[in-house]
């Protein structure tokens, strides 16, 4: 096994915290941030005091809504996966009954973290391996609509991976047909010749978190509302009414594209089996939708 293969395999084997269907993007976002630092030629180890605000911002933007955010957890626990090293933490006070240090201790000390020397060397000398690892992380934990947004926010250069399997194509065709090739939110149905223009099939519960490729887990969306749905700016309740996040605001097109949709029911698909199932809608509300719904 080459060093590149070994690094790809090591990153793919990362243990991600799980409890039911909850999303835990902490380690993936930390790894992507650290990969961007390697790509830019920064030193192997970075102070936690510098990583903490960056990772917190990423968790707020691309993670589920939480009352509080804890970048210190992945920074410490990623050591257990064999790809990450933390230094200067031996004398820090631990959380009660836990092995990891208190956040304030990490911030006040000289604690640094980064990839192990072995993997850092491979990632530094083999940029194609770094990009392959970043693509794999994005594909494993986030829908494709967010890949370029996350990459841009983190500052990592890569060609965005897209899902191209026959199964995915079948899902898209089934969903768009069931919804009459119209956006389930706004009714957008523009075509270029005979082809849909800016219309796609969105997964309600992400495939990266157990969502199946079936029409009852999909909704036809225009490009704007697909992105808004995957970002948590809009949602759908169990009665299939449209929810608009209180965090969304804007100028000229805000009322037209978002506010006027609040409380309205999504357009109904032509096939009964394509109606979004409540359990998928509940998952999206809990793990993707941001803030409170407007009323």
Outline of this structure?
By secondary structure, the chain is mostly helical. Helix content is 41%, strand content 10%.
Structural summary, described in words:
With 295 residues, the protein is mainly alpha-helical. The chain has two domains: 3-154, no CATH class; 166-287, no CATH class. It is built from twelve helices and nine strands. It has helices spanning 3-12, 26-39, 48-62, 72-77, 103-108, 117-125, 127-141, 144-154, 166-178, 223-231, 254-257, 278-287; strands at 46-47, 84-87, 112-115, 191-192, 195-196, 199-203, 218-222, 234-236, 242-244. A three-stranded antiparallel beta sheet has the order 1-3-2. Strands 4-5 form a two-stranded antiparallel sheet. Strands 6-7 form a two-stranded antiparallel sheet. Strand 4 and strand 5 (195-196) form a beta hairpin. The radius of gyration is 21 Å and the shape is globular. Residues 160-165 have low confidence and may be disordered.
